[in-house]
Amino acid sequence: MAQLGKGKLNYRCPSCFMRDLDIDMFLDKDTGIYSCIRCQFRGDEAKILEWNEKVRERYGAMYERFTKFDFD
What we know:
The protein is of the alpha+beta class and about 70 residues long. Strand 1 and strand 2 form a beta hairpin. The protein has helices at about 15, 45-60, and strands at about 25-30, 35, 40-45. The longest helix is centred in the last third of the chain and has 14 residues, at about 45-60. The radius of gyration is 16 Å and the shape is elongated. The termini are far apart.
């Protein structure tokens, strides 16, 4: 998903991203709370970064090549 213009990087909703959806979050500048337009996820920057670490666990072996499959 392209970003609109230059500036601070937009955060993706970690809750939607866990379900393979790529949704940008919107910042309420008065409260500093980010919210997703698709789901109920809301949180500050620290919470979003914490949940993004959980998402990274899902794709932890993305760059590893598996050549041997011992399912027996």
